[in-house]
Amino acid sequence: xxxxxxxxxxxxxxxxxxxxxxxxxxxxxxxxxxxxxxxxxxxxxxxxxxxxxxxxxxxxxxxxxxxxxxxxxxxxxxxxxxxxxxxxxxxxxxxxxxxxxxxxxxxxxxxxxxxxxxxxxxxxxxxxxxxxxxxxxxxxxxxxxxxxxxxxxxxxxxxxxxxxxxxxxxxxxxxxxxxxxxxxxxxxxxxxxxxxxxxxxxxxxxxxxxxxxxxxxxxxxx
Length: 222
Known about the structure:
Layout: H1 2-13, E1 17-23, E2 27-34, E3 37-44, H2 46-53, H3 64-69, H4 89-92, H5 115-122, E4 129-132, E5 138-145, H6 149-166, E6 171-175, E7 180-185, H7 195-205
Antiparallel strand pairs: 1-2, 2-3, 4-5, 5-7, 6-7
């Protein structure tokens, strides 16, 4: 390293312009000098790098215990996966949409949401997207893939149980060919999206559906 730096100082003192690469036993410098202005990009020699970290310093193969845990089935690994930071369950009891109760839709406290508020609330409901209903009203919808027809029917029952408890009901559809369940939410008496729709969406997201969805095939190791 000292020999490389001495080359740099010599070039600068000579008011030299140009590029040069200086190498020593453990260092490689790319030096750019423009009449006294010195730019140095330093790096270890590839041989020195291998001596420090070894030949194999990339991703490793999973251990036997990791394979047995089935951890590879949990990550989605899809390009459009939506990542959500979930707070501890103890906090969710006091904050968040799923801790709230739907208000009577006819109440004056339930008003149509503006676009800004819709986007903020939608971000708290992973998997749900803003769309238009058949009647042209703003709505939110979500799709779930199930492993078979009985699982689709069971998922709809679980969703309806949550909806009954909130007295706010989504439109549910089951495609027995694609094996997908779709839920559509908007507040009919208000003609669009209200806070009730997002509260119910958050509560639906809390439903346990691991036993109803197909196991994901392992695609690659991280």
